[in-house]
Amino acid sequence: MEIITSAKPLFAILVSLIATILIIITGEKARNLREAWTIIASIVKFTIVASMLPDILNGRVIEYTLLAITSELVLQFKVDAIGIFFAFTASFLWIITSLYSIGYMRGLNEHAQTRYFAYFAIAMSATMGVAFSANIFTAFLFYEIITVSTFPLVAHKETPEAIKGARKYLVYLLGTSVAFQLTAIIITYNVAGNLNFLTNGVFHDNISHNLITLTFLLYIAGITKAAIMPLHSWLPAAMVAPTPVSALLHAVAVVKTGVFMIVRVVLYIFGIDILKSLDLGTVLAYIASFTIIAASVIALRQDNLKLRLAYSTVSQLSYVVLGVALLSPSGVMGSIMHIVAHAFGKITLFFTAGAIYVATHKTNISQLDGIGRQMPFTMGAFTVGALSMIGIPPFAGFLSKWYLTFGALESDQLIVLAVLAVSTILNACYFMPIVYAAFFKEPKIDKHNLHETLDKRTLKEAPAIMVIALVLTAIGTILIFFFPSLFLQLAQIVVTNTTGGY
Amino acid sequence: MNLSEHSSILIVVVPLIASFLNVFIGLWRRSLCYPLFLLALVICGFLSIDLIQNIINNGTIRYKLGGWMPPWGIEYVVDHLNAYVILIVSFISLLVAIYSKRSLEKELEESKLPYFYSTYLLLVTGLLGITVTGDIFNLFVFLEIASLAGYALIAIGENRSVLASFNYIIMGTIGACFYLLGVGYIYIITGSLNMLDIAQLLPKLYESKVTLAAFAFLVVGVAIKIALFPLHRWLPDAYTYAPSAVSVLASATMTKVGIYVLIRISFTIFEPNFSKDIIPAGTILVWWSTIAIIFGSILALGQIDFKRTLSYILIAEVGYMVLGVNLGNKEGFIGAVLHILNDALMIACLFMVTGGIYYYLKSRNIEDFVGLNKKMPLSMASFSIVALSMIGIPPTAGFFSKWYLIIGAIKAEQWIAVIALLFSSLVNAIIFFRILEKIYFKKGNSTKDINVKEVPVSMLIPILILATSVILVGLFSGKIISSIIQFTVPGGF
Amino acid sequence: MEIIIGKYNYWIYIALMMIGFYAMIAKRNLVKKIVGMNIFQTAIILYFISTAYKKNATIPILIKSQEVIDVTQYVNPLPHVLMLTAIVVMVSTFGVALAVIVMLYKKYKTLEEDEIIEILREKK
Amino acid sequence: MKVLALIIVILTGSLLIYSSLDMPDWGDPNSPASTHVSPRYIEKTIEETATPNAVTSVLADYRGYDTLGETVVIFTAAVVCILLLRRFEDDKTH
Lengths: 502, 493, 124, 94
Description:
By secondary structure, chain A is mainly α.
């Protein structure tokens, strides 16, 4: 494998940190300029990430060592296929979310907008940091920065409820990462003497199996951002955050960091062979399967739209975990593809939830009857997102489910196959009623709010900038289905490197 | 004359002379006291830098006082460990001196200031004297100078400080007497008072019961001085009610010097294998400090007064260092020595911020910290950085010492200690995020904080310096370890 | 038996020291505490001085005319020196402790620890 | 509290008694304390310090630095007592 040394990954991280400083300096005084910084930073970041793509697609790896703090704890970046896959998705969606955020924040005339944009930019920096980490220490560092920098975003509303949600968020994410993940990293260092992500894992054959099992479980428990049950309840709690935060962070950056870390740990710290020989993949697959089904069932019973989406996220994240836990080429492929498929689909759904809130101040599903006539674009995008989640062609979600199914067959996991089937039905059960109600049900006559229901036939969309954003992501969901080659190629490189390929 | 040759003695003599002059200048012209006081500490700072450079370049310095050959005369032995602790002590005491000018305005009568500065300098003299000396009896003398100054500085505080100081005197004297008794026991079987000389004579006597008792008394004596749980009872009251500047100085330097003495006893006077193999002292201390960590953390959780919270956190942190030192492997030891520096920086900064809050708010109650970030943004930013470091989030300094400590604990297969370390990180997370939440996200409501604003510049600068150094020390921990700390690891590890 | 007689200096200092130690930690009167402290320190001083003693030896002041010096004829001077320092340290500690007691008395008008704690509790 | 204190005292006392068993007898001229460092003070006091009194020579010369420390302790106590007890004229204005 050819290695290129380049500071590009560092620049990709620094861009939004510089933006943070500019945002704080500009402040409330010049709001347009402040928002311009966000947009510029997001575009520049995306450009930098995209500029690394050709090299990676040609099988090269970009490396950059920032600082060797001690001989074993090194701040080092490595851009490989899976890293750029994640970074590309996240940085692209940041551009759209920035647009959307501006619409949302101004539409609702929110307070503390400077703080909002500043911490958002820090969180994006840290997400890039996780994507480009060359070792688990660097990844851990950025993982913690994400946690800390998103805390103010979750608590943004500063109501007692928001603070409570944010507290839960922090206790879960910080607590488990310090208690379990750090321990796991230290044990890894102690027994393997190496913290770098290697394609066949860092553990030697002669290490006690019990210790490896313990470390594996500590990692799984420590990476709570992946919201594997029973450590998932921070995610619904974090839904008190403003919708753009939920959209980008809790559908893309934060939770995807979690599953990305799990994929990293499974493939690059442990390696397929060790996990296969210890049967740990199956254990993880069962935990993930449980999460998929249980979270879907809970989602069915939620009336709050954002909460239903949150539980849907919990369930969908475990697809990624499940895929990689199958330890088969197609499983890994499906797992990686699901990162992007779910990102586009779920961000669309969250965007629509936010748009509905900005336009009508409605948060509950039972209030949405007939809303499709008022907000056709929004609800159209919602339908696209929902269908993608369920896994129907021609939407991105179909691709990943296709590979996941293959993966299950490859590793003879019939139970997993059944789980996939049941969860698809459950997905349909909790999404389709919303679509149906929005388009085909008559709006309920709200006696207290007559003037609103009267103009049900007129268009009442959210601000244009928000609608544009959510339509874009919906189109993206379709485009990925038709032109998946870039993502498939990247995933293919990962699969070839880690599993030996098909 | 080459001054740098004598820097090991000058560093003790300079604050001593300044303290002497201060009393008399104070009678004549009070306004000159502060400049003199500051000047002495600046000189100390330069000397300590000179000393550590000297050590890094030329290795251990042995300075014979009065020209008498050891073991007949007293000698100063400065190696990497001393120089490192000296640097910490002089750096912190200089920062606290800058900080104390405005902070004391509201906590002490002006006419007492010359005596305060003198006592402060005597405390610094004592601490530096303890650190440089290579003679166990001389160490006792300086220990008492530092302690007497410490008792007084605590007694001039508010509210219950006098009673706290009295309890400290009783406990401190027991500690010092135990130490002296230990010295007597060492003396009766070896006939020597010089540390290096004793180190050569003792191994033959490891089987003796007297050696065992000497070790026990020395360690327990120091354990009282560093407030190792359950000998910590004097500390929370003393540090809570002392004037802010004194709390900062005492918390950041006195316990650290105590840890230094503990390291000297366990690994210079006695060989490392004494506490490891011959008697199970290392194991006992590991368990003991594990309990200290757990209880310190639990007790910290229940406090309302923030200075008291910090005192209990300090007790847990002392547990960290004692644990690391006694784990019996290189990683643990490096972690402990690194933590001496990190903890000094972090605790000093936190106590300073608390003092800053108290300066206008007149309260240290955590409930009153609501909405402070609007009033004092820079202090609160520093507070947040240090809070992250206390929790152990990279790249702040706290992470790296914790990293080494945990690796050391795993290598020593002390799983309970690993859990205790993680537990205390979690408790710190709860404590600090509860406060950060109040500072940043709750709306100010009380009428009390109307006059609150950012602390005066002379108080703010030390806070900012400490907060910055928490990050810098974190990023350069590898460098610190490779150029200083790795040489302090005793042989046989 | 020989042990008991041969080392009786130790038994005496241990007994004294334990009396002082007990007073320091168990007595509730502040003055009694520091009196205990004094006994404790005195015991240590006695211990040190007793280590200096040699049978049939005299004080270490040499007569100039003496040519050959027999070390066993003079007691060990070092512990005496150490104890001169220790006495001073002890007196100073005692002084500081008394100063603090004076402050306490001014403030609370009592020297019983329990009563002071009672007063502090009432204040709250 | 008193029981606890008694237990602590008894434990410390027993450790002391236990360790005393290994100590040299009282007045033993061959104890390490009397043979390792101290003989030189007696033998060379006149030669090196011109003082017949060995205690003086050790106090003021060999270990003169300890004596400096001793005076510093007194000085500390003095300053401390002034700091704690002296009534200052401008107390009332504060």
